[in-house]
Structures are given as structure tokens and as C-alpha cells.
Amino acid sequence: AQALRNPKLRRKTMTLAEQWEQEGLIKGRRQGQIEMAQRSVVDALEARFGSVPAGLIEAVLGETRLEKLRGLLVDAIRCESLEGFAQKLGR
Prior knowledge:
Layout: H1 7-12, H2 16-49, H3 54-62, H4 66-78, H5 82-90
């Protein structure tokens, strides 16, 4: 491997390890956002309806699309019943 001699270019160039670390941080941040959104939906359901069936919780925890989870949070707040929420979750 040949070292970069230009100091400006060397500072701007990431090593492969740095790139992997950066990708890991991005993936970790995204996973954290997903987990926070999932937990928020479950918390909203529990706050509204008390006990929430395990199958419904599993379905929420299985959803990994942030936009869908954001919509589900609104649904959890607005739905009249757990059954109504479950229908929206299935869409």
C-alpha cells in the first residue's frame, strides 16, 4: 500500500477502517431510532389501553420502517380500540 503524500488529501481520505466505523455508527444510530419508535408505539398503546396482547407487541417490534412506525404512533394515540390499531398495523 502506498501512503498519500499530500497532507490535505491525506486528511480528507478515510481509511477503510474509518469508513467501516462510520457505516457502523450510521447503522447503529438508525437501529436506535427504530427501537425508540417501536417502544414509543408500545408505550402509547399501554398508556391508552393498559394491557396489550403479546402478539400485538411482537408485531410492532417487528416493524422496522421508521415512517410506518411514526404513523403507528399516531394511530396508537387516536385509535378507539386495540382491534382498530391492529387493523392499521396490518396495512
